[in-house]
Amino acid sequence: MSGPLHTYRKRVASGTITSDPGQAMALEKLQLLWNRLKERGNAPPAPAPRGWFGFGTKAAKPEPALNGIYLYGGVGIGKSMMMDLFHANAPVEKKRRVHFHDFMQSVHAELREERKRGTTDPLIPIAKRIAADTRLLCFDEMQVTDIADAMILSHLFEELFAQGVVVVATSNRHPTELYKNGLNRHLFEPFIDLLQQRLDVLHVNGPPDYRKLDAQRGGVYFTPIDEDTRQAFDDLWRSFCGAATPFPAMLNLQGRFIDLPLATKTEVRAGFTDLCAKPLGPGDYLLLAKTYRTVFLEDVPLLTPEKRDQAKRFVTLIDALYEARARLVILAAAEPESLYPKGDGAFEFERTASRLMEMRSEKYLAALG
Q1: Which residues pair with 249 in a beta bridge?
Q2: What percent of the chain has pLDDT over 90?
Q3: Which of 158, 163, 166 has the alpha carbon at shortest distance from 47?
Q4: CA of 62: how far to CAs of 47, 58, 154, 198, 340, in Å?
Q5: What is the mean pLDDT of residues 299-322?
Q6: How much is the pLDDT for 26?
Q7: Residue 299 Cα to chain centre, angstroms
Q8: Do 149 and 143 meet the contact criterion of CB atoms below 8 Å apart?
Q9: What is the CA 74 to chain-centroid distance, rounded?
Q10: Whole domain around residue 217: which residue ranges?
Q11: Does this model's pTM top 0.90?
Q12: DSSP string, 116-147
């Protein structure tokens, strides 16, 4: 016997992870999908008819064969772990595991190139290229907060499904809650319908947030902001710099420059206003995360509803650093769960708070070496 459920049971038996009924039920669903992929082998799947939502040639609605699974639920309940078990065991050669931010960044880059070529419908060749290289696409943390992404997704995913791509996604929200209250959301609703038609949507009732339970107080997270914590933050910065002399730095993202107050070859120090009060986006934060191994972020304030844009950028920054497995040293006005207690985006911030707790944990830091 093999597959994600078998691997999960082995880890439970060894004591590596704790058994949970919600996780076990989700893994049974993932196992069924794994079995279907195993039976199919590496032969290319038959393309599904397209045109259900107004793209391409109109066709009769096909049988409701599923193209994958959509797992959603609260933060820290093991969604990413289960998806990773599935991806690692998936019996296909052409598979890809990617954070949703990274995926959309690559799609936008390809769109720019196709438009330079004058392609009439650029998402079709992009989807075909993705399908040629990827039979299984695993998305971590699917969330839609950007109008540009919202306008792309329906057409792109219809083409991906038409090409037979299997998708496994994790999210904190049910598909109907994605891009909630967003600008022109009615244009995004076909994508919601598409997800519910083609993916098995499963709510994961998981255990408590293990990342929060595992967090260690102090170390790399300093709060509140006062003379003592600032001194400790400064001391740790100097210890990381060692003999290196930090200087102002600049990153170049496709001709647009990002100014950073202080940096060495592997460490960078910046204030909250430097990174979250300026019009930076996922691409900027991904570049930062890939350039520096350790990020010192100081003066993170209490975030109010009036600072929703700054809070959104902070969420995106933490996502990028977490996915890059960067070390984060932070000086903040409050504990993670109290930084943004209410306001637009506070729901999404629960995941960020959980990640901040994990990033200061002994387990996370030990894995960085």
Answers
A1: 260
A2: 48
A3: 163
A4: 11, 11, 17, 11, 45
A5: 91
A6: 92
A7: 25
A8: no
A9: 14
A10: 210-368
A11: no
A12: HHT-SSTHHHHHHHHHHH-SEEEEES-----H
